[in-house]
Amino acid sequence: MPPVLLSARSAALLLTDWRAGTDAPAYEALSDALRVLVIDGRVPQGVRLPAERGLATALGVSRTTVANAYSRLRDDGFVVSVRGSGSVVHLPRELAGRPDPERLGGVVSDDLLDLRKAALHAAPGIPDAVERAMRHVPAALAGIGYDTVGDPGLRAAIADRYTERGLPTDPAQIVVTIGAQHAIALLARVLVRRGDAVLVESPTYPHAHEAFREAGGRLVGVPVDARTGWDAAALETTLRRTAPAVAYVMPELHNPTGATMSASTRELLLSVAAATGTTVIADETMGELRIDGVPSLPLAAGGAGGAGGARGAGGSGSAGPVGSAGSAGSAGSAGSVVMIGSADKVFWGGLRIGWIRAAPELLHRLLLARPTGDLGTPVLDQLVARELVPRTAAVLEARREYLRQGRDDVVGALRTRLPEWDVPSPAGGLTTWVGLGRPVSSALVLAARSEGVVLASGGVFGPDGGFERFLRVPFTMPPADRVRLVDVLERSWARIGGDAAGVRGSLAAVV
Hints:
Shape: globular
Mean pLDDT: 85
Number of helices: 18
Number of strands: 14
Strand content: 5-15%
Radius of gyration: 23 Å
Largest sheet: 8 strands, mixed
Structural class: alpha/beta
Helix content: 25-40%
Distance between the termini: 30 Å
């Protein structure tokens, strides 16, 4: 099978600001920018790069510039030439695991501090939950083990948690998934037809926009800022102009900015989405990790009343077995709100449990579509989650103090040692969305990687690239690693000349 081709137009969108902040020759800047796309995973291994002439035209440079950039990538092991297939992306072996000191041009620690995934260590109490869950194993073993709906006890616990938070929920409105990403991908497959507009925030969680693109969605972005939140005017205009099939939002402790949507913007979103027949998917993966202040009601609480979606999606729904019509309304009525949640961020990333809260008729459609992608959520994981979810409030209380200390340590140290950066102190979540002041995020990530600290560049979170002026910095690590992180960022910033003229220079030595 021939390699998948990255079109010149798509490559140009990913290469936004590729020449900003550098005095290096154009071919070096281009090869560095492409290298970061590969390291970040935005251009996967095995993909064929655009033809030299096509990319040169799309970027407005000479073909020689592109040819020299590709040649440099081949020399560094990031591109291989395949007969009949052109230049194919390849991730050097040492970058798939621990960086190689000679290639990276720096001293690398024995262990990587990989912060591309913002996640916490396992919560206390999980071993006890596993032990309690084992009591239910004999009963579970009596079944066949293929569970596409979810353990009844777990669904009841999830419904109770929503009810505690101010959103009355029946277990019939819950389907358990293999983590939140699985929920997003499943909803994308069912709700999005090829060519449909899909509203996403910009920046946003990268694997979400990948899922909607994979389903054939045409992404339209709405700005979100760590300081000012959502651009309400842009949100309304985009909804009315494009009437998207789906609006994917993270209204509480947005990833990566940490912002929380105001009550007025929530009301606007729900009102306009109802008018345009848009299904709103509210992802609360980070939503319960609040450090300061009072959490908002779940977004669906503002749209309670059981309206069905314009494309058959459901809102609040009613009690009853999954798949029953309930009272969620019919296709063609007002828009609806679907909630996504996860046990991963609160309890542990190794517990692959997520869920969807929606009207039973939408859940029925999801269950019909699900077997083409998977045959059910692991039963043993569900039994453990069934023990943990009722204890969510107690676990969050313990997490809150740890996250507060981590946030204050990292934010305080960055503000002191890198005062030219804009470092917000978010009200919760797991990261801070740092403004660098110059479009050098990729250069900074590469420099930090040479010392064994691995971060995702700002462009990872842009549906169409960009965000080279930003860096997502987690504060989830233990105290010693917080110190290491800030030390490396300070040295890396000086190394790329960030505090002088924003000059990136040649990055061959730090890749």
